[in-house]
Write a structure and sequence with these properties.
The protein is of the alpha+beta class. It is about 30% helix and about 25% strand. The chain folds into 3 domains: about 80 residues, Uridine Diphospho-n-acetylenolpyruvylglucosamine Reductase, domain 2 (2-Layer Sandwich), CATH 3.30.43; about 120 residues, Uridine Diphospho-n-acetylenolpyruvylglucosamine Reductase, domain 3, CATH 3.30.465; about 80 residues, Alpha-Beta Complex (Uridine Diphospho-n-acetylenolpyruvylglucosamine Reductase, domain 1). It has 8 helices and 19 strands. The strands form 6 sheets. The chain has a 5-stranded antiparallel beta sheet. Strands 1-2-5-3 form a 4-stranded mixed beta sheet. Helix 3 packs antiparallel against helix 6. The longest helix has 19 residues. Bound molecules: flavin-adenine dinucleotide (FAD). The site of flavin-adenine dinucleotide has 32 residues, from strand 3, helix 4, strand 9, strand 13 and strand 15.
């Protein structure tokens, strides 16, 4: 491929990525459009592969250029700083195939948990009801070991396949992945998750569907689900709940710019309109300090922060 001499490195890499079959690509694309907080600066290159082969080729091409791409799911546990992300961001939501195999389902990383929950209910498969209303993709859920109501995605995972930087695919059995509370060894592996096998047990479709609806009802009653947020900001500290500590420390309704602690659930920060990532980060810092001063507990953020300051 010939590259014009006046091309920037981003333009040249963009041109290479554009040649890969089965991808959409955007340059200088605001990531606020791809995160549930609705904040964050642009990605130099945002690329969305639609097939496993395209994802593998994106990983290979970026690695040859010495770039480790940031992998993006549904952006529901992500705070992108206001300066955005230099290099390449890979959006996985185009990878959403699901295939039943006995009482298990092989789900691609970009499928949302909502779709996987509905699919399992229709198929009369029980085991994923805990995940109803968690708004992420399977890939994001596996990285975070997302969970609720006593269940976690790691509990029902048989194996996970990832795409390495050189484009090769490797399968890990669940036992190799060190799933724990809101963490998994997949983060340390640093590859792009491609797909996973999830295990279910046979159930009555109506009962599974009913359980999903009940879980959703509880969630809507307790969480500010209609406001832009990234879910729980802090992890649960040992022996307590972050929301409870924040409320007791007086953090409810704290506000920095357009970012505020939710009046409905103190462990949720919401974008009331026009918030910037630096507003959210300042609010996280202030709320953390408040809890530390009152209880001597340093809360650990659950939300992932990426990118650079404006
Ligand atoms: C209203 C609301 C309620 C929520 N409730 C819950 C809850 O009850 N329980 C819970 O655990 N979480 C909850 N969350 C947080 C969030 O939905 C989960 O953590 C979810 O699993 C994140 O998935 P995602 O696709 O949005 O990941 P993203 O936010 O896009 O990414 C999260 C991390 O995973 C990485 N990643 C994503 N996809 C891949 C991939 N394919 N390969 C490699 N790395 C990848 C990203 O690089 C990033 O580090 C909630 C969020 C909101 C907004």
């Amino acid at each position: 491929m010939s590259v014009e001499p006046c091309m920037t490195r981003t333009d040249a890499l963009g041109a290479r990525v554009r040649q890969i079959e089965g991808v959409d690509i955007w340059l200088n694309e605001p990531l606020s459009r791809y995160t549930s907080f609705g904040v964050g600066g642009p990605a130099d290159i945002l690329v969305a592969p639609h097939t496993a082969a395209a994802l593998a080729e994106v990983m290979r091409v970026t690695s040859v250029e010495g770039i480790a791409p940031v992998i993006l799911g549904n952006g529901t546990n992500l705070l992108v700083r206001d300066g955005g992300v230099r290099g390449v961001v890979v959006l996985t939501t185009g990878l959403k195939q699901m295939e039943r195999e006995g009482d298990s389902v092989i789900v691609e990383a970009g499928a949302t948990l909502a779709t996987a929950c509905c699919h399992s209910a229709q198929q009369g498969l029980s085991g994923m009801e805990f995940a109803a209303g968690i708004p992420g993709t399977l890939g994001g859920a596996l990285i975070m070991n997302a969970g609720a109501h006593g269940g976690e995605i790691g509990d029902i995972t048989e194996w996970v396949e990832v795409v390495n930087a050189d484009g090769s695919i490797r399968r890990y059995e669940s036992a190799e992945l060190g799933f724990g509370y809101r963490r998994s060894g997949l983060r340390d592996i640093g590859a792009a998750i491609l797909r996973a096998m999830l295990n279910f047990v046979p159930g009555d479709p109506d009962e599974v569907h009913h359980a999903l609806c009940e879980t959703m009802t509880v969630r809507c009653a307790r969480q500010p689900v209609t406001m832009p947020s990234a879910g729980s900001i802090f992890k649960r500290p040992e022996g307590g709940y972050a929301g409870h500590l924040l409320e007791q420390a007086g953090a409810k309704d704290m506000q920095v710019g357009g970012a505020a602690v939710s009046g409905k659930h103190a462990n949720f920060m919401v974008n009331k309109g026009g918030a910037t990532a630096s507003n959210v980060l300042a609010l996280i810092g202030a709320a953390r300090e408040l809890v530390y001063d009152k209880f001597g507990i340093m809360l650990e953020p659950e939300v992932c922060v990426i990118g650079e300051d404006a």
